[in-house]
Structure formats: C-alpha cells, structure tokens
# Entry
Amino acid sequence: MAFEQTSLIIQENNYPDIKIKRKLASEINKLFKQGKIPDELQPKDMNRFCDNLYRLAVDANQENNIQEIIEKIKTEINSTPSQKIPRSISLFQYLFAILIRNKIIEIPIKNYHCHITEELTTLYPDIEIDNDYIFIYSEDR
# Structure
C-alpha cells in the first residue's frame, strides 16, 4: 500500500537519452505490431536492444540525428516486404546494415565493436567491414 502511495509522487524520468530510447522502442514496436518486421526478429529485451541501437548512434556521433535514423529505418522497413527481411541475422544487424547502406553511419567507428556474422557479410557484401573494429564470428573458429 505504501508503494502505491509513494509511486504517485515519483516523477517520470526525463533524461534525454531515456526519452530517445523510449521513442526508438515505440517506433520499433509499431513496426512489429503492423507486421512489417517478422515476429521471429523480436528482441528478447527491447530495452537492451534500444540501449545498443542508441549506443551505436552515440558512438557514430549521430545522437543528434535520432529522428533521421528512425525515419530511415521506418522507410526501409516499410518499403521491404516482410518475407524479404532476412531472418538469418539479428534485428540489430539488419538495422546496422540499413544505417550503413544509407550512409547514416559510417564504419569504422572508433572504439565501437559489434558482432559480424558470415550471414551479414553474405547478405550485404557491399558493406566494407574493417576487421580491426569488429568482432567477426564464424562457426569454424
């Protein structure tokens, strides 16, 4: 009972990065609800997913362009039939590829390391990946 009373007093967190992550989550969840992104790509933890996407934007010096990032993601996903969205890579890798291909972010990103799989490089061979800035994963290693 005390929690319910005190929780009414606690103000919502208004830190700018928290608002941005909420916006990212809201827009991505809308795409799932509209059936634009296949359900099997749903992140297990949307908060962690949005933390990672926001961290990518920050490390790429694009944190002031979040709305452009959201719009580019929405445009690309809305213009791609759901059955054409790759299921052999994670949603993060797919969005990473969208942002690189559309030159919203440029790689390499100093001090940024991400998970690159053979599937990602096979699906998007036009993305030039610098092995010094990434973590490459292969079943053979």
